[in-house]
Amino acid sequence: MLFMQKGSVSASLNREMHESVLSRTNRSKTFALALIVMVMISYTPLVLDTYADISSVTGQSSDVTSKGVIAMGSGGTTTTYSVNNTIMLFNNTSVPGNLINTGSGFYPSCAVYDPATGDLYVTESNTNNVSVINLSSNEVMATISVGVNPQSIAYDPYNTYLYVANSNSGNVSVIDPVSEKIVKTIDVGTRPVGVAYDPADSEIYVANGGSGNVSIIGTGNTVIATVTAGSGPEALAFGQNSEIYVANEGSNNVTLIQGTTVIGQVKVGTNPYAVASDSSYTKIYVVNYGSNNVSVISGNAVSGTIKVGVQPDGVAFDSNNGDVYVSNSGDYTVSVINPSGSVFTTVSGTFSPGPIAYDSLNGLLYVTDTYGGNLSVINGTSDQIVGTVTVGVFPTSIAYDNLNGDYYVANSMYYSSVLAVNATTGKIVSTIRVGNEPENVAFNPYDGLVYVSNYNSNNVSVINSSTNKVTANINIGHGPRGIAYDSYNHNMYVADAASSSVSVITPSGSVSSISVSSGPYALIFDPYYNSIYVSAGSRSVDVIDSTNAWVATITVGLEPYGLTCDPVNGYVYVSNYGDNNLSVVSKYTVIQNINTGAFPAQGIYNPLNQKLYIPNRGSGNLSVINPTTGGVISSITVGNEPDFVAYDSANQNMLVTNMGSGSISVLSPVKFTTTFTETGLPTGTVWFVNITGQTPSGQISGSSYSASLFNGSYNYTVSTSNKIYSPSSYTGTFTVNGVPLTKSVSFSKYTYSVAFTRTGLPSGSWYVNVTGQTSSGPVSGALYTASLTNGSYTYTIGETNKQYSAPNGSFSVNGASVNVNVTFKGSYSVTFTETGLPSGNEWYLSLSNGQKFSSVSDTIGFNETNGTYTYTISNLSSYYTLNHTGSFTVKGSNTATTVSFDPYAYITGSVNPASSTVSVNGNNITLSSSGSFNVSEPAGKYKIVISDQGYLTVYSNFSLNPGQVEKLNVTLKTPASSSPVFTISETELIEIIIGVAIAATAVGVVIYLKKKK
After folding, report:
1. Residue 993 — φ and ψ, nearest 5°?
2. Disulfide-capable partner of 396 in 412, 736, 783, 991 (CB 3.0 to 4.6 Å)?
3. pLDDT tens digits, residue range 176-231?
4. CA dist 119 to 172, 247, 372, Å?
5. CA 794 to CA 213: how far, in whole Å?
6. CA 557 – CA 540 distance, rounded (Å)
7. Cβ-count burial of 505 within 10 angstroms (0-12 exposed, 13-18 middle, 19+ buried)?
8. Which of 372, 7, 60, 422 is CA-nearest to residue 195?
């Protein structure tokens, strides 16, 4: 296990290397000045105007097929925009709001392996973070914010904490790797750059490069001693006898400390910058940055010197094979020293190697690529690079693919990839390997492909966005940078910076070349003139016409860096990086210069509001320019070093790549609340608001409804489910213009005229009673009018002249006036008189016209007009009437009808057996379980038949008088013979005797006549 960690590059060296990288990529000759400007800039409030859905989303102009023609939006109101969220590319997270000072982590300064968690912890000097890397997936799983400019990190297995030396804040952050939280911050000396763990006493030693001493942190996480070392102590390692070896970069020696006492000094090479011990702590390896070698110390003397690569600045010992690995930042190699003390192989790669961490479990070494923003993984057995872990990114350009809704981000410098980012989630969905150092990316709507210019591989990678795979690599000129789509001929144009040419890629894939001024950097298509404008040289822009011929060179400002086009008037706006302004070019002439922020880069034009959006790398913001007035009208704060702006047509967002933050700022139009407030509706009544182009409100049960809307003019409609009510206006318009808005909606009952017109009544007042409404009262004229809401109604008509009447009725109101005709007819008294009912016994009368009457007296009286009516009379008690149905006719006079009621007669008794069948005049009656029965019948003659299987049938005939009760108790008998048994009443016997007598008389007469003859 290796516990020693190297210190950081000095501040001056960091600056030199940073400037060297920037010079190599031709991004800025004055980056240090840019950093100063970024600190001093005063940001203005965020105000941005609405922009249109433009088809070109790579910073070039819209896809326009005819000169000067572009689809214009409606409106013109000012919309405020803000950074809605920031997509952090280096850890694939989308964070709400604007993270201005968040770095991308592309300056990893040191790394340490934690055997307890199996994770790798990397300090990021540019972001003031520690990245937590899962070594199973080689992905950044979390970031921990520490002090300023963290340079070195060590793991303490005693308390399982991590210790981070924060160079610029003069302290050490103590991290609990389980909770991934800082548990304590310990103040130490000036500019702490190296930190190491002492396995003998479980103490932490910190090399303070600025104060020339070493702080000793005890197990209680407090500084227990401070020991003076040499000049500029940078790194520490422990020896066999627990002595500490301190590499002093300023005094070119190593200080030996035992406990708190300096016990010796060992002279080594120039600028000793890193130090490590072997697994037995008997050999100490000191990396000398200035003399390009390694000093081997045994005890307190140098026992050997080993030549390595250029500017070595990191070292690690492999406990599995005994090899020593030295990173050489000057020639981008890693020297491997075998146990005998000689360099037996060199590992080369595309990294700029720095400190090294060793994973004893897997035998892997992780080399920090200080300026490439990643970790190179070396297999300690094969000494080959087996992988790369991305810690940070360097986004240089971005394009929006309106076919799949993804952003494509060129991840430049040492990453050789394009990141596909989902516009909805803000997550990286694919990392696409392309050529070396991808500079610019553009979407071609003609073929639906994404084109990427690769600066260091001299080609263009073509990505199929459906699969996110590279389908072709097209070789072009040297050092390709800018790339643009020409909507006139569908060609792709690429600025070849190193060959002073522009490559033309046709839809068929053929390539041709056009010579331009030296160092072409950016280009753009101007649809107004169907021309390509190319920024080239230190102060010029070349123009290529539609025949691919060079036609002009225009002198502009210093270091033309980016180009933006106004497709309506054909103006091209040149971002002069060195002059902090824009040159406005009309065809071939500069007509105006507009001051911007520091180091303006590649912007976009908004055809909806005719505004320009220019990113200022040095100011960390966007300049919003009105080309009509020719001035900056506002600015928008974004991330560090914004370099490129694109447009998301689906979501109406602006996308800004922040190179210094490794992020994308997503600018969304700010919505303002429009509240509709209703009055007049009963509480809880459902109503609706529909705003053109927005989601309908659905049912609103409260008194207000709010919608979040962009600035602009809108149409709306309102309605309610209660059709009795209507708004004062069903439709309307309103305009949102940067402030919340309230719209009042007034509802009221909507009534219609219902006119009742009387005819046929010669004199007297009449009345109209509408259900649920106030009665009309007496109406003397022929017309009565009521105001009613929509709905269905019934009404009754009354009159003072009882010789006339009018029928009742119903009507419906449905959005229009209603006329109801009331026709009176002469009426006469109709009287029904009953007899036979006891006093107080209620009886009922129903007429065929629907009228119903009842009374407990002996009469029912009412009026009817001429006509014939049928009636039905009933009584609910024990009385009946023989004329319960009938008819009467009213014909110009009163009419009277008498109804006679009689009490019912009853037949009651019992039958044995109870299973017998009993019929009364042919109608079966129901017996109880015991055989009893009781039926009511009108007065009259009745025939009773009682039978059961196996019994003699009994017949009984009798007459019933009104109110009479006839009792029958019958027991059926079994037959003695086959003859039926008859039961004869007294009346029947008399009838039989009379019949016999009549028959005998007739026989006697016959005999007499015979004798007489």
Report:
1. -60, -45
2. 412
3. 999 999 999 999 999 999 999 888 888 999 999 999 999 999 999 999 999 999 99
4. 20, 28, 21
5. 104
6. 8
7. buried
8. 7
Task: Give me the helices (H) in 255-373, please.
Answer: none
Tell me how crowded residue 37 is: count the other CB atoms within 10 A of its CB.
19
* Angle at CA of residue 399, ends 396 and 402, nearest 5°: 165
Among 278, 256, 281, CA closest to 267: 256
Reduced to 3 states, what is the DSSP secondary structure of residue 747? strand
First to last CA, the chain: 168
Long-range contacts of 654-657 (CB under 8 A, 24+ apart): 654/48, 654/51, 654/81, 654/604, 654/613, 654/622, 655/398, 655/400, 655/407, 656/615, 656/622, 657/395, 657/396, 657/397, 657/398, 657/409
Instruction: Of 455, 463, 396, give the one whose Cα is nearest residue 429.
Output: 463
Instruction: Report the b/e string of 640-677 with b at 16+ CB within 10 A.
Output: bbbbbbbbbbebbbbbbbbbbbbbbbbbbbbebebebe
Q: What is the Cα–Cα distance from 374 to 122, expressed in whole angstroms?
A: 10
- By the 8 A CB rule, do 675 and 743 touch? yes
Which parts of the chain have pLDDT scores under 70?
A: 1-81, 88-93, 99-108, 126, 137-139, 349-352, 354, 369-374, 387-393, 413-415, 607-609, 876, 977-1013
Which H/E stretch holds residue 41?
A: none
Whole-angstrom distance, CA of residue 928 vs CA of residue 349: 111
Could you give the 3-state DSSP secondary structure of residue 24?
helix
What one-letter code names the amino acid at 819?
N
- Cβ 144 vs Cβ 175: under 8 Å: yes
Torsions phi, psi of 990, nearest 5?
A: -65, -40
